[in-house]
Structure formats: C-alpha cells, structure tokens
Amino acid sequence: MPDILKNLLTIFRSFQPNARRFLAMSFLLAFAQSVFGLVFNLYILKLGYNRDFLGSLGALPTLTLAALAVPLAIMYSKISARKNLLISLALGLTAMAGLSLLPGRTALLFFSVLSGASGAFFSITAFPLMARSSAQGDRQNLFSCQFAVSMTAAFAGSLAAGWLTGLGAELFFGGEEGAAAYRLTMLAACAMLAAAAWPALRIKEEAASHYAKGGAFAGIELSRALMVFAPQLIIGFGAGMIMPYLNIFFKSGFDLHIASLGFYMSLMPLAMAVGGMLGPWLVKRQGRVRAIITFQTLSIPFLATMGFSGLLLPTVLAAFARTMLMNASWPIYSVFMLGHFPAAQHSAASAMYSAGWNLTYSLGARLSGRLQMNFGFTIPFLMTIVCYCLATLLLSKRFLGEDDKKTAEPAALKEEME
C-alpha cells in the first residue's frame, strides 16, 4: 500500500493534458452526483410516493441510456469528445434542476429520462477518450485513476450532502428532515455540477472521425462481443437489485439520522477509490482476468454479511469490504473489454457495453422496487449473490486461459532465444 500511494503523484503527472482535464471533470461530476444521489430517494419518499414508483424512477435513466447509447455511437464520428461532454453536462444539469423543483409524477419521469440521456452522452465518450489519451502501457493506470478519483469525489460528496442537509434543516426548517431540506441539498448539487463545465471546455481534441475511419460497428462479431460483455451484464442485473437503494437500506434498517447516513454512505465510494488503486497492483501480479476473478470472489461473502447480519457495525464493515473488492475489478474490466476490440471499434464497443449493462441494471432496479414492497431486501440480496457467483464462474470458464496464454508466450520466446 505505501508503494501504491508513493507512485500516485508520479503516475498522475505522466498523464497527457487531456487525461488530466478529464480527471478533473470526473471529480467535479462525481461530487455533484453524490451530493444529489444521497438524498434523492429519500426526497421522493418524503413527497409521498411509494417504493414501486421509486423503482420506476431508478430504472428510467438506465433504460434511456441503454436505448440511446448505440444510436449516439453511430453519430459519434461527427461530434468531438469535448462537445459530447458539454452536451452531457447541460442535460445533466437540466435534469437535476427539474427533479429538484418539479415534484409532479410526470415531471419526475420526464427529467429521469433526461438524466439517462445525459449519461448516454458521457458513457459513449469516456472510455474511447481515455483510450486515445493514454499509451497502451499507461491505460490501466488511467482507467483505475479515473475510477479512484470519481469515487474519492463521491466519498466527499456523501459527507457534504449529509452535512448540508442537516445544516439546512436546522437553519431554515426548524430541524425537520423533510422534503424541503432535501430539495435545498439537491439544488446545491446543481451548482456543483455546473463547475464541471470548466475542465470539459479545456479538453482539446479533433473530431472522433479522425480516430475511427469507416462504420463504427463495422467488423464487430456480435456473438464474440456478447461473450465478452456477458459477465458484467449479469453483475449489472445483480447490482441493480441493491445499489440504487443502498441509502434506503441503511436508513430504514437502522433508522439513521441524515448526517450519520451521509457518513456511512460516504464510506462506499471511499472503498471504491481504495479498490481502484489496488487494481493495477494486483493486475501486475496475477494478470487481468485473474485479478477480476479474485476481487469478485472475495466480495461475495461480504455481500451476504451485509444483507443478513442485521447489526449496524458488521453491515457497514461488510459493505465497505464488498464495495472495495467488487468495484476494484471495474476499471480492470474496462481495459479488458476494450482489449478485445481494435481502436476503430472502441466507441461502438463502449456503446454496446453501456447499453447492455444499463439495460440489465435497470431491469434489476425495477424488479427490486416491486420485490421490496412484499419481501423487503431479502430476495434482492439473494438474487444479487446468485448473479455475482454466476458472473464469476462464466468469466473463469471463458477467459481465464487468456492470462495463461500471455504468461506462456514470453516464456516460450525466451526458450527459443536460448
């Protein structure tokens, strides 16, 4: 761990200017989204809506992202990364403001769709931009650093959201932790999101057509692509069962004050940041696929403890460990996924992956909202555990040989030279 921390500054300085600007934008974006996300579900319930409607709101952004990712990737060669990112921020800011100020059912549904459109522009831009802004040898470091930076910002955002809401309730609403106090925090998040436009405006890049000649989807084998995506699509469904409702799980299960909720929720992105820093270290020692399998396998017992211990401290510790381990594999998988496609297909592959992952995630979120009405979190947690186990087994069966092959090739070459 000391070696990892010691090298972080050196690694950051080695990144290209566009990469550093994108990291700054990622930090500000994640901070604003974390402040907003901590209180949004609670805000919706305080307005009088039930969890079934909350499930619909949770599913709409990801369903919209899934629907738009591929069409946007087809148009991607005509739009620069900087313009895509600015469009994403403008749509995201409009969606946040609308969700904060207009509490009607139709308005909430509409702005949830708009939020998904914002995510679609970001999702089809981020991976290809990072790939183009890094050399092959630096790519894993950049993807892991971007993930760690975003999660560190989310950690700070959750802490800030709990503090802001508590302070706003005391100053303006007689200490009442109600919808008005939550709305004040959500509007503060809007202002924070607007700040992310500054580093986005400084990204300098030619139109993506200079990097991807020909049709974006030309030459992609659908069956091969689906096999590469399948483990993460299964995980996406399982994650959708639990992750959108984690604040409700802690709030309803342990009756926490908003400041305490903000603290405990802030530990989750902090765990992700730690995992993001551990990822490259384990990749160097085990190989990319083995590192993903190791992280995912170790996370499963903690997921079970988190769901069924019934005690606050074990639940928080297990949630931290599960989040750190499971999400440590996320940036590793991103590089693993792009490695199965040539550079000209990166935007198309990213769009297909984003569409598939968000579709399964939204289906899990929608189903979980309905199941919670009758069973609480018991069935959603069980289904998530099953999904994580299946995804890890599939990855082991289909791709574990890749690490063995990469290890064997240098050894064979060395023998031939001798």
Key features?
418 residues; mainly alpha; Growth Hormone, Chain: A; 15 helices; disordered C terminus
User: What is the residue-mean pLDDT, rounded to a whole number?
Assistant: 82
CATH-assigned homologous superfamily: MFS general substrate transporter like domains
Number of helices: 15
How many domains is the backbone divided into? 1
> Poorly predicted ranges (pLDDT <50, ≥5 residues)?
208-214, 407-418
The name of the CATH architecture is Up-down Bundle
Please report the first level of CATH classification, the CATH class. Answer: Mainly Alpha
- As a percent range, the share of helical residues equals over 70%
Beta-strand share of residues: under 5%
**Structural class of the secondary structure composition?**
mainly alpha
Q: Which fold name is given in CATH as the topology? A: Growth Hormone, Chain: A
* Largest β-sheet summary: none
Q: Could you please describe the fold and organization of this structure?
A:
The longest helix has about 40 residues, at about 380-415. This protein has 15 helices and no strands. It has helices spanning about 1-15, 15-45, 50-75, 80-100, 105-130, 140-170, 180-195, 195-200, 220-240, 245-255, 260-285, 290-310, 310-340, 345-375, 380-415. It is an all-alpha fold.
